[in-house]
Design goal:
The protein has 324 residues and is of the alpha+beta class. The protein contains eleven helices and eleven strands. α5 links the parallel β2 and β3.
Length: 324
């Protein structure tokens, strides 16, 4: 369950596009989980309806950043779903809602404690979001990357984190006796394609077209592309995920307000990640858009997001901490 995630990624929007019918009733959710083991669901008038009111209240009262309210919002939905165990991915860094690890740890500890008091097994991973996860930012672009990852051809960081989250859930679910065995099982499910087939199954069950994972031409496609290159050589020392997210939002990949309409076709594709050695005029990323009104401003934000230095940066851990 992505928690306090990065600005660029719109998880619910991905789910809506792949599977248009989002489940919102407890009986419907349980029936589908019993049948195929997976369901996409969201807060609704039937599932934790008060949470929707709390969201609006947080906006009106200036308490959006309240850690107790964030924790109660997240955990109320999970408990209402009737879970036995839960793995949380708490993002922290420039591209996350929570910027500092100490605050992310506080949020994780509160959520784990809520779970424990309700006799649920909960574990939280604090994961780095100072640079974007993977290479794609934007709805259709990220679905393409998801498809590639589930076919064992995705970015190293996205694959590694996905496998670790899956392994933690496998272990909490008592499918394996040890976390090491769970990691081996998660890797096996990636390699044999069963994870890829399962996503297709849930897309079909909820009214979507599973062929979008094979035929990217069925997804919305941008009409314009703008390359952003570095004026000098060196090493990519930083990629500010927040600025990348803001740029993506400017060209329509995210919402600045609740009323904004997301364009699923547009977004940003990185060509390099932190630590990469680049020469002058090396392409750093590409903007994909359908309306060029804000492209110049978005390009400036992306240029500011990349920091090039003469020396290679120190490696940074992807999984910063585990709270259980």
């Amino acid at each position: 369950e992505p928690t306090a995630g990065s600005t660029p990624r719109q998880h619910t929007c991905h789910a809506v596009y792949m599977a248009p019918r989002i489940l919102n009733g407890i009986d419907e959710i349980k029936a589908q989980v019993a049948k195929i083991g997976l369901a996409f669901a969201g807060q609704s008038s039937q599932l934790t309806p008060t949470d929707g009111l709390i969201y609006a209240l947080r906006d009106a009262s200036g308490t959006v950043e309240s850690v107790p309210l964030i924790a109660s919002s997240i955990m109320s939905k999970k408990l209402a779903e009737g879970i036995d165990a839960l793995v949380l991915d708490v993002k922290v860094g420039a591209g996350a809602f929570i910027k500092r690890q100490i605050q992310a740890r506080e949020l994780a500890q509160i959520m784990v404690a809520i779970g424990r008091r309700n006799n649920k097994k909960v574990i939280a991973l604090l994961t780095d979001m100072n640079q974007p996860l993977g290479y794609a930012i934007g709805n259709a672009l990220e679905i393409m990357e998801v498809s590639q990852t589930l076919q064992n051809g995705g970015p190293v960081d996205l694959t590694r984190l996905s496998l670790e989250l899956a392994a933690r859930m496998i272990h909490l679910g008592k499918v394996t006796a040890t976390i090491e065995e769970a990691r081996e099982l998660a890797q096996a499910k990636l390699l044999d394609g069963s994870g890829f087939r399962k996503l297709k199954e849930v897309i079909a069950a909820q009214g979507g077209n599973p062929q979008v994972l094979d035929r990217f031409d069925l997804l919305p496609n941008a009409t314009g592309m703008r390359e952003i290159a570095t004026p000098r050589g060196g090493y990519v020392a930083g990629i500010d995920a927040q600025l990348i997210g803001q740029a993506a939002t400017l060209i329509g990949a995210g919402r600045a307000t609740k009323e904004d309409v997301i364009d699923p076709a547009v977004g940003v594709i990185l060509d390099v990640k932190m630590g990469a050695k680049v020469d002058g005029n090396t392409v750093l990323c590409r903007l994909y858009y359908r309306d060029d009104a804000n492209v110049e401003e978005a390009a400036e934000l992306v240029e500011d997001a990349f920091r090039i230095s003469a020396s290679a940066p120190e490696d940074r851990e992807l999984i910063l901490e585990v709270v259980s």
